[in-house]
Design brief:
Layout: H1 2-19, H2 24-41, H3 47-81, H4 83-94, H5 98-116, H6 121-132, H7 137-146, H8 155-169, H9 173-182, H10 187-205, H11 209-221, H12 228-231, H13 234-254, H14 260-277, H15 321-339, H16 343-350, E1 353-355, E2 365-367, H17 373-387, H18 392-424, H19 436-448, H20 456-467, H21 470-488, H22 492-505, H23 511-520, H24 527-555
């Protein structure tokens, strides 16, 4: 019964967003009230702790809105300077086929940004770029969410492994004993070993993501609503997949968990773009495109209009191809440098606002404004103003439009993230129950028994769905997954790997990531429509990983630990 109650806040989100198609601004306040009510009256958590968790959630909300604003500002700045029109022409020169464009932008460039920054940043960069190139807003958001699967386990320079799995397992005596028995020598070697297993699973399951990406484009947003038009590019899609996943797996094996997504995507871009320019591996015939804009369904369009016909309306000079792309190169470079262990990153982190132990509950809230990707976006937007010689009218329009779009996203996020934090901080109540995520996990494991490896990625996915982070999901559930593996007599390190893969897959349906990605292109209120589509990808990813793990573990086909 307690497991069912713990599942209730998630169920409410699913019913209201996906079932009744309510906008997140109406669904998430209800979910927050359900979570807070359960915390107060069933788990009997002190009021001060629920309030502290809510305040921590509001702090995270401010950070998300800051990132959203920066991403929208960069888009609007490049739109008014005329740079987006130049970028669009550049992509047309690579390939006019939208199926190729979505693979290059979402899968390859998005994976690179994920490897550099993580935490939803790929959508903040790639979704507005796709809208600027002429994609329907809903199609861009769906594409931006789908790719937040394979690269996520090694996002933000390996944070889900180096922080999530690390903090989830470190200090537990049975885990330390198991590591010693493996003969790995040191804890960092153990994390790299788990990371390589995670990469192997992703290489297998993630192979189909580019093909699914284009099939979703043609099936849901094509004139003919055709799956066949997406499948027609299977040679190119699989080539683009292997161009990323093969180096991704090799980097995980030889260099560790910091750089698989980052270097895999860079190598993939270097391989795939020349092939796309030459039209290799593509079917004969006209390039595939979306229907003419007047034929788009009303629900496809967001509040951010990107008119590329007007040229450099806000600029005083013609923008060249290199200058148009330079802001995105700056974004990529600054994100990478700021996430590495260099003095520059330390300086950015040094500016911190922190409220330690809010209301004496042990819950901390902190804000590092200079370290957030939003600062990178704003700085690069200001550089673009000077670089593209924009006039005051264009700059004013870019800032004004960005503030309006960000404001529309605020209501949903103000309730979404506090709900998550209340859900995560329900331990220590007078009822004596463990926190809601662990109660839910225990219920799932009890129901599944020895078949549990099938559902291990699903549990990791639910953790990311609620928490909005593969890292947090791994912190919550890695030790639980390890102990279940020991209990049912299977290799526990593979159970942790299944957890990490499922946690990555959960990002494609994570509510606050969907809200953020939708807000960047003014698509607030359509979050349920996005999740209805991306849920199919999550089911594929989590269940396929679970089946592979279950079959291989039971048949002894996976290489043993150590």
């Amino acid at each position: 019964m307690t497991a069912l109650l713990a599942f209730l806040p998630i169920l409410v989100v699913g019913i209201l967003l996906v079932g009744f198609r309510l906008p997140a601004s109406r669904a998430m306040p209800v979910s927050y009230l359900v979570a807070a009510g359960l915390a107060l009256f069933v788990w009997q958590v002190p009021v001060a702790k629920v309030a502290a968790a809510s305040i921590k959630g509001l702090t995270v909300t401010v950070q998300l809105l800051y990132i959203i604003f920066g991403a929208i500002l960069l888009l609007n700045t490049l739109k008014h300077s005329g740079a987006l029109a130049v970028i669009r022409n550049g992509f047309t020169n690579i390939s006019a086929d939208r199926r190729v464009q979505v693979i290059i932008i979402a899968w390859l460039f998005g994976a690179f940004i994920e490897g550099a920054a993580g935490f939803g940043t790929p959508a903040a960069v790639t979704v507005p770029l796709m809208v600027g190139l002429g994609f329907p807003a809903l199609a861009a958001v769906v594409a931006g969410m789908i790719i937040q699967s394979t690269p996520v386990s090694f996002g933000a320079v390996g944070t889900p492994i180096l922080v999530g799995v690390n903090k989830g397992l470190a200090g537990d005596e049975p885990v330390q004993t198991a590591v010693a028995e493996m003969g790995l020598g040191h804890w960092e070697g153990f994390l790299a070993f788990v990371g390589f297993k995670v990469a192997l699973l992703h290489v297998i399951v993630g192979t189909m993501i580019p093909l699914l990406l284009v099939v979703f484009m043609t099936r849901f947003f094509g004139k003919n609503k055709s799956v066949r038009e997406g499948l027609a590019v299977w040679p190119f899609a699989l080539f683009a997949s292997f161009a990323l996943t093969v180096p991704y797996g090799l980097v995980a094996g030889f260099l560790g968990p910091e750089f698989p997504s980052l270097l895999g995507a860079l190598i993939g871009l270097a391989i795939v773009v020349p092939v796309a320019k030459r039209g290799w591996l593509m079917p004969k015939g006209e390039p595939w495109d979306f229907p003419p804009r007047p034929e788009w369904e009303v629900g496809w369009m967001g509040g951010v209009e990107v008119d590329l016909k007007s040229g450099q309306a806000g600029g005083s000079a013609k923008v060249g191809a290199f200058a148009a792309w330079l802001p995105y190169l700056f974004v990529a470079a600054l994100l990478v440098v700021s996430r590495l262990s260099v003095p520059f990153a330390g300086w950015l982190k040094a500016v911190e606002f922190k409220w330690a132990s809010i209301f004496w509950t042990g819950i901390d809230a902190s804000l590092q404004p200079l370290y957030l990707p939003g600062t990178v976006f704003i700085v690069v937007s200001l550089i673009a103003v000077a670089l593209h010689r924009m006039n005051g009218t264009g700059v004013s329009a870019a800032w004004g439009e960005s503030f309006k779009t960000t404001a529309k996203a605020s209501i949903a996020l103000v309730f979404t993230v506090p709900m998550v934090q209340v859900f995560l901080h329900t331990d220590g109540g007078l009822a004596g129950y463990e926190k809601m995520p662990i109660v839910l996990a225990n219920g799932v494991a009890a129901l599944a028994g020895e078949a549990y490896p099938l559902l291990a990625p699903v549990l990791g996915g639910f953790g990311a769905f609620v928490a909005g982070s593969n890292t947090i999901s791994n912190m919550m559930f890695s030790l639980f997954q390890f102990n279940v593996g020991v209990k049912i007599g299977v290799d526990p390190t593979w159970m942790v790997a299944l957890q990490a893969v499922g946690g990555a897959a959960g990002n494609v349906i994570c509510v606050h990531n969907v809200v953020s990605a939708s807000a960047v292109v003014g698509l607030t209120g359509r979050e349920g429509d996005v999740i209805r589509k991306t849920l199919l990808v999550f089911v594929y990813y989590a269940l396929t990983a679970g089946v592979i793990g279950f079959v291989f573990l039971k048949l002894g086909l996976l290489p043993p630990s150590g």
